[in-house]
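Record Gustatory receptor, 399 aa.
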Amino acid sequence: MTNVYKTTLMNILYLCKFIGIINISYILESNGLLIQSTDIIYKLLEFTRMILLIIFTYYIHKYGAFTQTINLCNVWSVIIASRISEKRVIQLMNGIIEYDQKLTSLPRFLFISQHSQKKNYWNKIFIFTLIYYVIVTLVIFKTFPPKTFDIFTISLFIVRLEFLVDVAVIFSTCFFLQQLDCRFQTLNDSWQYLLPGFISVPAGELSHFITGMTLDKIRLLHAELSDLLRIFSAGYGQMLVGFFVFSYTNTVLTFYYMIHHNAAKIEESTFIYFLNTFMIYMTSLQNVTFILSIIMAASRVHEKKRKMISYLRLIRISNLPANLKIQIKMFINQISIFESDEITAFGIFNINLNLVVSILVLLITGLITLIQLKEHPFMKQSVDSLVNYLRNITKGTNK
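=>
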């Protein structure tokens, strides 16, 4: 479980460092812990990357459309939020390694199975995402071949900061949620195997004293996992607020522009075909997939976290020795305290399946509101800006 975590973490780190979510100076040691290097080369690389991000931002804002400005806000909100909570994120990464070291203190017979995604699982996701990125890039170039190959072309058609940031947030968020999920499941399996031992373990194999010590270790490990869950909410909460807000805004505007263009019956065939049959639907599907990935991963963690209390309630503590009764009661009280903790977006809203309904209601409400405000000068200006921008590209293509 630890080896797969270290291997996959390297790829996640490279992606986060490339886009600016994590400082380049953080390096992964052989023991799996991250430390910040003081080498001057890392500071130069960090400075160079930030300069490139600023240059790309300038050209996209200057020559891009209104929707691309919103995407830039998403990019920088994630980068700034990640830097504010960077220590929490590093604490989470190192905390999982330290937790795995403490997990070995449990008796060996409890490790019937250790749940962890195989290395190939994340490799397949990385490859599929790369293929999708290349296909979308080729479609854009085929539809709107640029007249010149400059910084604007690179930043808008090749690098595509908003997509890379979204992928980095999704991958890192789902990866750490998955790691917590697997470790909660390992504890649950250990408890299920220990449960018959309260009654039917062969004499001499597991005394009441050793059982009490094992229960105490499982209780402490469960508490530490719950603390890691809190650290996750603190480290990723601010990033997820920006991600959810701008994903929602982008989706609402995408649907609005689609309705507006269909109603206006604009006849630029290449542009309309590309916009309505590919970009709009792919962008919407992409946003929905990203959001659902986080929500489902968070829901699985909560489900595994709460399973332990159902196991505890199955025990008839009246038949147990005094020391085991105390351990069970302490465990139940501890879980009752941690049970109220939810994975949140900086405390603004909880990330669970109920969020899906809330987002759907907000999407419908926002879309209806924009349609009612279609005659507002700001909305007209945003639509005209997008249409003129895409017409200029089309004119450039036809020349």
